[in-house]
Amino acid sequence: MRLDLRWSGTAVLLVWCLAVVSAVAAPVTAQLRPPSVTNTKAFNPSTTASKVAAPMPAAAALLPPIVTKTFEPVVIRPGGTATMTFAVTNPNASDLSNVVFTDTMPSGLFITGFGNNVCSNWSLSLTNGGPDGYPDLSVGVNPLSANTTCTFSFPMFAKSAGDFYNTTSAVTSTEAGSGPPSNTALLQATDPIPTMSWLGLAALAAVLALAGIIAVRRRA
Prior knowledge:
Layout: H1 5-31, H2 45-48, E1 66-72, E2 75-76, E3 81-90, E4 99-104, E5 109-111, E6 122-127, E7 136-141, E8 148-158, E9 162-166, E10 172-173, E11 177-178, E12 185-189, H3 198-219
Parallel strand pairs: 2-12
Antiparallel strand pairs: 1-3, 3-8, 4-7, 5-8, 6-7, 9-12, 10-11
């Protein structure tokens, strides 16, 4: 039996080409995918609000410290003494540092020494002193605790008669800035109005009555 090599070679070549085409076409077919679909639904903020973190609330601003002052008693004689008291308050729930205020006395009124205080962390500066006392002071508290009031008292000397009106400077702090000055306190130094006891009044009445009787008799 005689085998025709030309046809057998052609058949082998044909089979080989079919195998190659099958191997190339298979991956292409496997890689085909349906076209992707884009979601065109409109954005609704309300549906995503719960996923966005709410902003942190801003910290409340601190209130400045407050200072008030009084004189006790409010009326004295010239050359007499009174007590001047300051009250410094921190109205916040946190401490304030470097709380400072100053005060200049009106002419004729002087600070003569140190009084009582309820704060241990305070400082005092008295300046421009003379034989009658000090006209200027500076008070500091560091720190002034939260929701706390410190009081400071000083003996005062009124050299002459007069109405002494006095107000502090603005009170300052590092964290809360400047607060308003104190109220205006008044100390009056005046000579007392002469008074008379009831015995004196009775004696005066008797003298006036006697003088009246004498005058009537002379006319008679």
